[in-house]
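User: What would this chain look like folded?
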Amino acid sequence: MDLQTTIYLVVGASFALYIGIAIWARAGSTSEFYAAGGQVNPVMNGMATAADWMSAASFISMAGLISNMGYGGGLFLMGWTGGYVLLAMLLAPYLRKFGKFTVPQFIGDRFYSKSASTVAVICLLTASITYIIGQMTGVGVAFSRFLGVSSEVGIYVGMGIVFLYAVFGGMKGITYTQVAQYIVLILAYTIPAIFISLQLTGNPIPQLGLGSNLVGHDVSLLQKLDQVVTDLGFGKYTTTTAGSTLNMFVYTLSLMIGTAGLPHVIMRFFTVPKVADARSSAGWALVFIAILYTTAPAVAAMAKTNLIRTVNPGVVMKDANVYDKEGAIKYEERPDWMKRWEKTGLLKFEDKNGDGRIQYYNDKTKNAEVQKKAEEAGWKGNELNVNADIIVLANPEIALLPNWVIALVAAGGLAAALSTAAGLLMAISAAVSHDLIKGVFKPDISEKGELLAGKISMAVAIVISGWLGLNPPGFAAGTVALAFGIAASSLFPAIMMGIFSKKMNKEGAMAGMLAGLAVTLFYVFAHKGIFFIKGTEFLGVIGGANSFFGITPEAFGAVGALVNFIVAFAVDKVTKEPPEHIQHMVEAVRIPRGAKAVDGAH
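Assistant: Here's the prediction, encoded as structure tokens.
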């Protein structure tokens, strides 16, 4: 069976499975729509949480970024995983004990103010819509290659699939769909990694293969990769950091606290029966997440190795000179996988020196020796542009793995993007229908009316996110990092102060959220354009790119969070403290015993 037919069959079967589960587990009440009735098994919830959290950025883009950045890309591993531990230990059990559906509802009740809830909704919508752009970007990348359509058409198809199972199934349908999506995505990630690790190092365990010697050689994969990438003018794979040490630290911190403030992940802990189950499902989720996250560095290094070996045959496995004029592959002899990815526009070749061969190196290096060797070899600049988002998806093709493995990776990439997109849409829907419409504008709305409002708001969110996905501000993981920064600067401090500071009042919380969100968006929009619209950047106003101590916009969320805390406590000091019953409620929530049932009657 040819590759394209195999892909259609595997991806089609996975889509049929998701839609079938959504129909079987469709929500019939607001409790089922928002919190799956609060009766999800902790192990299944852990699996669903892992799928919800491991998005297109984790599956498609993270290994690509690590492949490009090397050691510096580890900040994504440390930031996202560390943030999940923070969420599991400091937030999830207490929020589950509070017993409501959503983060804005917690903030509204804790800070005894509908205005505080509304501010939280604004922050949630800003973070979630930014996050979902990355998922739609990932959907477009996967569809464009594997279904032979443009990325735009891919996004439209993805919107339709999510609409079918998220709008009709609600949180109940999404939960069981995400369990299936986790199984698909984890098999799709680990099976190719095992094959490729065996090919390169003879070790079937990718995590161990990363540190093993290349087959038939006395040199380790990482040692050889270090040598080759530095010969090609790139930074050393095992030591190069992402910008300054300060930026790498702040970036990691921003991803950590952003993870802990993500509303669509927090909502998952409202779906289990008890507080103990919230802790248990958090632990299980970490186990399921670790399988992919410990595999990612191996996938990244092996993909980089295979890419360089493709362009410069023999360089990785032999000690050939990377600047040998006959060493670079002829463009006409390029493998089929390159031809397939060229059609998507995500892999591009430009013959700058007219020799008909592909030169792949860092032509912006400041290394004088590399510049001299490239000049002597007649190279006129880097000729191969490889989008970071294709590394994982192209990996099994580069390694010439069987068609069924390539098809499985296609299904896995789409599962990762669609599972998180559904979780985000659920958070957006609940914020609009439950927290805004019922909580603020129309408290007497019927359950049927609220359910309809939730489905309509989700459909509108799908359309908006799809449009933004057609015009993304960057790579999937880079866009997602912006969303984490927004959540870090706005929601995380408010949730933390709501749980651990019984004296924090509504004025302080609202001022902090607005200040943190405003300063972060100002810095991000200066770099990326107002609402990510290209051409509306205003870098001159802030003194140039990364002007604040060299911190990139993706890392700025931690700075916004600091502003949030400072403003909140400053305003709190000059305003009235919370009522006594609120302070007692905070103390009660901090005692992790028992749990209220999920408030089905609101």
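The beta strands are 347-349, 384-386. If you want, I can go into more detail on any region.
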